[in-house]
Model the fold of this input.
Amino acid sequence: MGVRDVLASQLPILIVLLCLGTVAKAAVVRSGREPDAAQLGPAVLIPGRFRAPALLVCAAGELALAAGLLLTTHPAVRWATVAFFAISTYVLMELRRRRPDAGCGCFGEVSSAPVGVRSIARTTVMTGMAVMTVWAPVPGWVAFAQPSWGMLLAGLAVLVVLSPEVEELVERARHRAPCEQRPGPAESVMLARLRASGVWRAHRAELASAEPYDSWRELCWRFFVFKNHQEDDVVFAVFTAGRRPAVRVAVVEAGSETLPSYTPVSA
Amino acid sequence: MTYPSVDRRRVLAAAVLGREPGVPGPGADDEPVRAVAGQIRDVSPHLILVETAEGETERLVIAPWAKAWHGGDIAPADLPVGARVVMRTREGRVVEHVWADTIRITGTIVSVEGRKDVSVELDCGPHRGRRTILIPYRVTGRLRVRHPQFEPGYLFDAIGVRKDGTAMALLPATSQPAYPARSVPAPPPVYGGTTTLSGTVTWSDAFDEDERGAAYPMMERSDAGCPDAGVSCAALPYLAIGSLLQVRNVCAGRSAGVPIVACGCLAGRFCDRCVECDTSPRGRIAELSPLSYVELGGDLIKGCFNAQIGWG
Done:
């Protein structure tokens, strides 16, 4: 392993982390919810109405750096990355001093734990990695194509140890909200899942129209109602969790307040 | 998307999942209490004549112990003719509580003007638009002490009367949440599937006069057509317009099945408690129409009751 490989070895990590940061910050803004102090990170230090734009600017900056690292060997991009992580380290230290309740916000809402020594150590390590890559002779895509596995895994291991987000993700996976409290997939996605089901194929011919005339979500089910050729209601219930969810169907006579003309079927 | 008939949803959902559709209305073993809403045509110490929303006239007996509220406690016989009232009746015909011209002013503060009499513009959510209310000088202290953040972006909730077309706030309906309206705290984590939840239930005057139903915050945004839906600091399940909510008033021991008829985007922003008979867990779980609220044993002036809801 030459010095060149060592210098370029951390490029893939930096690029992937910058992209993750972009996606997570954009997701925080896009969710539309006013993020609380814990999720905003350094953005809590600026006035409320500038917070969302500040997150977006930061996300765009990260994306630009990631693209630059991936495609070019230009020293300006490399030094900009060093500067970005060095400033982040300083900002996190400042944040820890001024708003001890705020999370680092590095990866959006996952980073809601208060900034600790580990988060600061992580940005310091990443500054170091960025400094290493300044003299790397190849652009990021070459480092992706011919990774030096040993160095890559070592860098990754250090970062995992220093990331409070990993524990947060494990906690979330262990204590997931029950399905009736989780936002479900979009209506169009659920309709596509219904159309991929065997129950749909069995009843498709009866329907007067392929588009539902009513749809709503209740608890863990999304309901779609169609008219059949006799003007009766054909109602499908699709479970909101899973890629191939359970689908049930019933036909209810028009105008009837009573229950189904035949028993529900399970997929 | 249009809703051909939201009542039909309950029947269809019950059919496809093989469960009972549920019937809206009061619980079987409760003492019968009926709420009547209308406009006073005539009132005497013992009788009150009201015209209901359907245009029918109802003649009701005023109980000797009956109470009335019209900006303050008054004798029922002193209620002005023409006032819009909500009444709680026992045995169907005996009035025991009258609330006249009572309004509930809930919203996000948009602007505050005036030094003595304060005029406040409120954003009452995407469905209810904006309204301007007046806080008379004599009650500003009482309202401000429960609304310490009296500035744009914070929530406001008060009870008042409509007088000569002006909405006047008189009583605070809650202690104002300390966060801006857009920063609702996240719900506490829940482990395992429960089918009941406790919290506070309030009322709103944004329903039709003779409507029985509830506004519920936790709906899919695409279903409710409401960009603010799906926010709550209570661990509420997703339901839809047309679902039936079992509401139990813990203070009065009454329960009823109340259909969800509207999106309660604003109710979901309040992470407050009701201290009506005990301290409820945080979070508004539903906003009832005045008739449903009174039939569940609520007092419009108190603004909330501790409640337990069930679904499914």
